[in-house]
Amino acid sequence: MNADPRKIETAALAPTGVAAQLIARQAEAKLPSAPWLDGMRRAALETLAERGLPSRRVEEWKYTDLRAAMTMAHSPALTPAPVARVEIDAGLGDLATLPGRQIVFVNGAYSGAHSRLIDDTRVEIVTLKDAANAPGWLIAALSASNAAPGEAVAALNAAFMSDGAAIRIAPGAAIADPIHIIHVSAGADTVANATRHAFVIGAGAEVAVLESFVSLGGAAQTTSVTHVLAAEDAKLTHLKFAGESTSAQHLGNWDVRLGARASYLAIQFAPGGALTRSQLFLRYDGEGARGHFLGAQLLRGRQHCDMTMVIDHAVPGCESREHVKAVLADNARGVFQAKVLVRQDAQQTDGRQMAQALMLSDDAEFDAKPELEIYADDVKCNHGATVGELDEDMLFYLRSRGIGEAEAKALLIEAFVGEVLDKIENETLRDALTAKTQAWLAA
Fold first, then answer.
1. CA 262, CA 106: separation in Å to the nearest integer?
2. Which range has highest mean pLDDT (7-21, 130-144, 356-370)?
3. From residue 53, how far is each of 9, 64, 225, 307 by CA, in Å?
4. Of 135, 220, 277, 388, which sees the most CB atoms within 10 A?
């Protein structure tokens, strides 16, 4: 069979045995191997061969037809392009100056030359590339998943995963500076990057982790899966900056389990990508835990951003919040899907959902699908969605104070998005993402 090893037609991800074998051969030749890792990869390949990519006929994907969007799949590059640190910093902007650890992946492979690590017995960091010597806690974290068996993004990532960061925070440790995981797509050719991370946060520990994605050069197909295990009383602030080029495709999963009284704040900021699908699968394993998801979509042209969440209240007394804000210009499309499951024993659940879209064009589209599936009777759950334009009265007020029309609109949009970013406690990080909003407005 003659085939370009760098390009696989969509049929390769449909139920054809020959195509699945092609993917398997590429995986065996280029990707890290270990018995536990090979088992995950084989299962993923079988899923892709059997099911293919989801289309709009799959309910969870009705607003994002992945089979139609991903018309060509590319094999992993695994060869970091020659990239200078100054180029990475330019792509990150103000995020490059954040203090603390930086773990850099270029084209899906860890780059020690670009990374900045700090010796600290409270923080253990290993890479997936060292799979043969993976510690037990890493294998346990990667094996814990709340997604449905064979979930598409998880399977696609497992089939091609090449590297990743596994981070364990010691019980009781309070890490002052955020840990920054930087993903760089580089080179003139389209590349496929598949990274898988694991965060294990010890009891009573506190840390912030930022995942940034930037493009230097050609387009990219990115899949990234992060597993989070937060023990009792742990506190994790988990952020994503999806700042890839407008020709990139980005698929990401956050798979999270919370122990008793754990606090999890997830914030995703998405101004980039032609197609972005970010999924959160969150399960409460201990009573009194809190999980909040905040998302900001800044889209123009024909960009498409889908933020989808499945929240599983399996125990009593937990709190969940999902709040997404979208700013949509031109022909952009934003999607918000959130399903909250309250099981029979999960009494005193407090769950709320809200989606808000600011439409800057008559041709833009926003789809909101909040869901509540409740089997308990002592709960406080609600959801809502609003779609509107810029407030003409506020525009008039600002212009009457001598502010130009463009600046007045920018101020209102920045304030709209700022309700998400204001939740970030770290001032330096908050200011850096605010600067990203300002840069998008100025473009």
1. 33
2. 356-370
3. 12, 11, 17, 18
4. 220
Chain length of the chain:
443
pLDDT in tens, 202-242: 999 999 999 999 999 777 899 999 999 999 999 999 999 99
Cβ partners under 8 Å of residue 275, min gap 6: 64, 69, 70, 248, 249, 250, 303, 304
Distance between CA atoms of residues 181 and 130, nearest Å: 17
Q: Provide the token pair at 440.
A: 């998008």
Spatial CB neighbours of 6, under 8 Å, sequence gap ≥ 6: 74, 75, 189
Can you give the pLDDT at residue 78? 63
Distances (CA, A) of 139 to 126, 198, 201: 12, 9, 15
Closest CA to 74 of 130, 149, 22: 22
State the Cα angle at 148 between 147 and 152, rounded to 5°.
Answer: 85
Would the pTM count as exceeding 0.85? yes
Do the beta carbons of residue 34 and residue 132 sit within 8 Å?
yes
Amino acid at 431: D
pLDDT in tens, 411-436: 999 999 999 999 999 899 999 999 99
Q: At residue 232, what are phi and psi to the nearest 5 degrees?
A: -60, 140
> φ, ψ for residue 421 (rounded to 5)?
-70, -25
For the ranges 73-77, 128-132, 154-158, the lowest mean pLDDT is seen at 73-77
**Residue 423 buriedness (CB in 10 A; 0-12 / 13-18 / 19+):** middle
Radius of gyration of the chain (CA): 21
Per-residue pLDDT tens for 147-200?
Answer: 999 899 999 999 888 899 999 999 999 999 999 999 999 887 778 899 999 999
Q: What is the DSSP letter of 274?
A: S
Taking CB atoms within 8 Å and a gap of at least 24, the contacts of 22-26 are 23/48, 23/159, 26/75, 26/76
SS3 of residue 42 by DSSP? helix
Q: Tokens 């869901």 sit at which residue?
A: 371
